[in-house]
Write a structure and sequence with these properties.
Layout: H1 13-30, H2 40-49, E1 51-55, E2 61-65
Antiparallel strand pairs: 1-2
Length: 77
């Protein structure tokens, strides 16, 4: 599986995943697509509704948060 965190920061694994998800939720709140007083389950539901399905290099499909209809990565331009 691709290490998405390495595109955006110098750390990876769960630390990078947490940072990316927190940033995505903050973007949702600042754009008013997610309520400022959304609780955990509401934020999770909103986050999952923003995901698209992508496949890794091995063909395994999984959900990935994307602001729009597609995700783009620096090495896949």
């Amino acid at each position: 599986m691709r290490e998405f965190g390495s595109y955006f920061c110098r750390f990876g694994g769960t630390s990078a995943s947490s940072a990316l998800v927190a940033g995505f939720i903050a973007l949702g709140k600042s754009s008013t697509e997610l309520s400022d007083c959304a609780d955990g389950p509401e934020a999770k539901s909103w986050l999952l509704s923003q995901c698209i399905e992508i496949k890794d290099d091995d063909g395994e499909a999984f959900q990935f948060p994307a602001w729009g209809d597609a995700a783009s990565f620096p090495d896949k331009i």
